[in-house]
């Protein structure tokens, strides 16, 4: 075989081929490529990337293209198992050794290492440091050491693992072998510890942005959380998610309420036995449980990529924890949602807790809590605040948080503030926030009556406004420094000097109008309609097929005893539902379908697509039985160039993402992550028309769009009819007029392109 051999020194091109062949992805994410270049050059590498950023590919792909075994140090047994399963499902030979693996199995694995069969060996730090294992390492050919979750080395971090500090042994005993350290923690102390303790020699450090643009950030007032959650679940049927609570009791009761709605939910907290916990985790991984209600103990070290949402029932203690927890949603890059319920009561109980918890750290912890509170109460782009906290600046507002989606309107709140301040003074500065609101709204409850508060002049002066509105305005007054809370006096509100000036009419108070939750959380873009009709969401063909594919995935996963996302991620299934691939080339063109997965699952999924009508454009081209020929690996290269749409387009190779001009590509990526055109324009500081042009350009070049965001099926039908009336290729202008300006040019252009693609042109 003259041409089959890989070049001696692996190149980025061979890495790219491996990415397509084994993972089914067309291109590296920007930083992955640089990292892999660096690793292939034999240098030490440090990778700091947020959860879901795609760290695994960074060492797995080089491991495949290089000679020898890549030894991966990983702290958690569950994580190792998951990663090895995922690798095997992609056709890459990998194994793990830890305390759960029996001796004879270990011997087999050792043999596989020595004969060069294995590409990756995962090992726990304890095992790695044992003399027996070091001996094995000395006898085998090692391509590199990858230290996963490398922040465990730092005693500053929350996941400190003492064994990790022994890992310098690797550099001492194997000075020639490059080391790559990976973590999702970015702070400087941790970074320094990693480099020093691993004895890395002038490593290149890759710090990727910690932004996760596909996460839609939402904060809602803490009233009626249970109602809010049940409503949310109705709008997110079938989607996996995690709800974080503070207490065990809360976990259990909330899980019961969710179960009562017929949703498969489980709870998870530290009071359960290890077996019970493992069973719940397993149920979640396997999609047997849709929802987990958990204390923060849940989620660490699970790799489930199709978690679609995370809800915080309570305010987290700090932004680090919050960010880590919401980071568990949307790891596959598809749109995901993070909802935080916020009430001032949570701040109070957390303050109490932190004050008691660790006296040495009280001040630090309270400051962190304050930053968290500021985030929750913010009236400006939330992502900016988050990234700021991690030392990053976002030039533009993000367009994908509740504030950006529904910017609050301001009004002159002086009179409102005066009413509240007057009530504070007249009740002799003894009332808490909730009692103040009760007084303003003229409530006749025990606390009001027993304090004689129904007798003061401002009693009932604010009865025209609902509780939540007042709640928001009093918080704004707090943030603006008109009042403060005397924590030591039962959280009584006190007026400040500024507050007095307002009361005396010497100062005006601009306020942000309160927006009720339903409005604030209105679903973005094309999902609006779906959200409005939450009770009976319209079932599109795509949604139907997606459901069917999910069911199939679940069935196969159960048969094989692996989590469903190991078979295909949600985004891969989504793409299948849109593209409806019915032959080999088309199926291999789907992102996430590599060779091995095609061989194993391709036929089953093609059958499912066919059962749903298949892709009409591709039907004509099918083999007689409608199924793929026996796979011939040499054919594979054609699938690489023929991205997406099968059949006729095969004549003219389609562009891969990297071939489309860079800036349009960025727009396209954000679009695929679920951002609306407006959000992308805002975020990138571009005109809406520019973003639209980017999208049509990408669409024309063969990249996929979420058409449903712009055009509903009935829109498409209407445009198609108009087109038929005007002849097959009407001028846009005529179409625009004919439809009485109902659709803008962007939509019309898209629709025409869509029809063209359907016809296979
Ligand atoms: P991390 O380890 O940083 O949390 P993962 O390695 O689990 O992230 O990757 C997150 C998701 O992104 C996975 O589903 C992975 O398959 C996917 N992914 C990684 N690299 C790419 C790529 N180049 N193109 C498309 N998807 C990718
Ligand atoms: Zn924003």
UniProtKB/TrEMBL annotation:
Database matches in InterPro entries: DEAD/DEAH_box_helicase_dom, DNA_helicase_ATP-dep_RecQ, DNA_helicase_ATP-dep_RecQ_bac, Helicase_ATP-bd, Helicase_C-like, Helicase_HTH, HRDC-like_sf, HRDC_dom
Domain HRDC: 539-619
Domain Helicase ATP-binding per the UniProt entry, residue ranges: 36-204
GO cellular component annotations of the record: bacterial nucleoid; cytoplasm; replisome
Region annotation (Disordered) ranges: 617-666
GO annotation (BP), single: DNA repair
Keywords assigned by UniProt, alphabetized: ATP-binding, DNA damage, DNA recombination, DNA repair, DNA-binding, Helicase, Hydrolase, Isomerase, Metal-binding, Nucleotide-binding, Zinc
Enzyme Commission number(s): 5.6.2.4
Domain Helicase C-terminal: 225-372
Compositional bias of kind Polar residues: 656-666
Gene Ontology terms for molecular function: 3'-5' DNA helicase activity; ATP binding; DNA binding; four-way junction helicase activity; hydrolase activity; metal ion binding
Swiss-Prot/TrEMBL cofactor(s): Zn(2+); Mg(2+)
Catalysed transformations (reactions): Couples ATP hydrolysis with the unwinding of duplex DNA by translocating in the 3'-5' direction
Similarity-based family: Belongs to the helicase family. RecQ subfamily.
Record protein name field: DNA helicase RecQ
Organism: Hymenobacter taeanensis
Lineage of the organism: Bacteria, Pseudomonadati, Bacteroidota, Cytophagia, Cytophagales
């Amino acid at each position: 075989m003259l041409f089959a051999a890989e070049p001696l020194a692996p190149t980025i091109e061979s890495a790219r081929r491996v990415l397509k062949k084994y993972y089914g992805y067309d291109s590296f994410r920007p930083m992955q490529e640089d990292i892999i270049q660096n690793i292939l050059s034999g240098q030490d590498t440090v990778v700091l990337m947020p959860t879901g950023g795609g760290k695994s590919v960074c060492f797995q792909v080089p491991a495949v293209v290089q000679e020898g075994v890549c030894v991966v140090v990983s702290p958690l047994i569950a994580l190792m198992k998951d990663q090895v399963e995922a690798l095997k499902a992609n056709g890459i030979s990998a194994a793990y050794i830890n305390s759960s693996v029996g001796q004879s199995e270990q011997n087999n694995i050792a043999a596989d290492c020595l004969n060069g069969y294995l590409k990756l060996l995962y090992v726990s730090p304890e095992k790695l440091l044992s003399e027996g294992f070091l001996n094995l390492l000395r006898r085998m050919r090692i391509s590199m050491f990858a230290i996963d979750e490398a922040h465990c080395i730092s005693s500053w971090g929350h996941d400190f693992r003492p064994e990790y500090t022994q890992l310098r042994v690797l550099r001492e005993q194997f000075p020639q072998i490059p080391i790559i350290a990976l973590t999702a923690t970015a702070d400087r102390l941790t970074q320094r510890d990693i480099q020093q303790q691993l004895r890395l020699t002038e490593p290149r450090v890759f710090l990727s942005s910690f932004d996760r643009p596909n996460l839609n950030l939402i904060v809602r007032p803490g009233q009626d959380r249970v109602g809010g959650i049940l409503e949310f679940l109705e709008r997110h049927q079938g989607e996996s998610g995690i709800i974080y609570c503070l207490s065990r009791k809360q976990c259990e009761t909330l899980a019961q309420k969710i179960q009562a709605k017929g949703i498969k939910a489980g709870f998870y907290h530290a009071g359960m036995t290890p077996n019970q916990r493992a069973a719940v985790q397993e149920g979640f991984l396997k999609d047997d449980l849709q929802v987990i209600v958990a204390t923060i103990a849940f989620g660490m070290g699970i790799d489930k990529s199709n978690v679609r949402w995370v809800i915080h029932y309570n305010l987290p203690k700090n932004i680090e924890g919050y960010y880590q927890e919401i980071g568990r949603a949307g790891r596959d890059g598809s749109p995901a949602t993070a909802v935080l319920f916020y009430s001032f009561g949570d701040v109070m109980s957390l303050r109490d807790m932190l004050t008691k918890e660790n006296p040495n750290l009280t001040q630090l912890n309270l400051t962190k809590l304050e930053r968290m509170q500021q985030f929750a109460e913010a009236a400006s782009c939330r992502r900016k605040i988050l990234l700021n906290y991690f030392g990053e600046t976002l030039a533009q507002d993000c367009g994908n948080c509740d504030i950006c989606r529904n910017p609050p309107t301001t009004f002159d709140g002086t009179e409102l503030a005066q009413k509240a301040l007057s009530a504070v003074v007249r009740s002799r500065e003894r009332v808490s926030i909730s009692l103040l609101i009760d007084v303003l709204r003229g409530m006749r409850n025990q606390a009001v009556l027993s304090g004689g508060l129904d007798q003061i002049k401002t009693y009932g002066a604010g009865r025209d406004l609902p509780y939540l509105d007042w709640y928001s305005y009093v918080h704004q007054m707090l943030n603006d420094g008109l009042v403060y809370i005397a924590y030591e006096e039962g959280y009584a509100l006190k007026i400040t000097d500024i507050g007095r000036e307002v009361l005396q009419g010497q100062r005006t108070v601009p306020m942000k109008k309160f927006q009720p939750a339903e409005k604030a959380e209105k679903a973005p873009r094309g999902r609006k309609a779906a959200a409005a009709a939450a009770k009976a969401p319209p079932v599109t063909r795509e949604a139907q097929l997606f459901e069917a594919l999910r069911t199939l995935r679940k069935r196969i996963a159960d048969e094989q005893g692996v989590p469903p996302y190991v078979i295909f991620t949600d985004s891969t299934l989504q793409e299948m539902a849109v593209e409806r691939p019915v032959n080999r080339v088309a199926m291999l063109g789907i992102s996430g379908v590599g060779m091995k997965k095609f061989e194993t699952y391709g036929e089953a999924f093609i059958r499912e697509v066919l059962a749903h009508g298949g892709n009409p454009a591709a039907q004509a081209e099918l083999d007689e039985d409608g199924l793929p020929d026996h796979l011939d690996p040499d054919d594979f290269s054609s699938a690489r160039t023929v991205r997406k749409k099968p059949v006729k387009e095969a004549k003219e190779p389609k562009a891969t993402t990297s071939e489309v001009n860079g800036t349009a590509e960025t727009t396209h990526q954000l679009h695929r992550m679920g951002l609306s055109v407006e959000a992308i324009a805002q975020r990138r500081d571009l005109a809406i028309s520019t973003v639209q042009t980017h999208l049509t350009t990408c669409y024309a070049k063969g990249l996929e769009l979420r058409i449903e965001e712009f055009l509903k099926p009935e829109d498409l039908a209407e445009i198609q009819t108009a087109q038929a009336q005007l002849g097959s290729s009407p001028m846009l202008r005529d179409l625009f007029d004919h439809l009485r300006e109902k659709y803008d040019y962007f939509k019309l252009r898209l629709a025409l392109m869509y029809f063209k693609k359907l016809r296979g042109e």
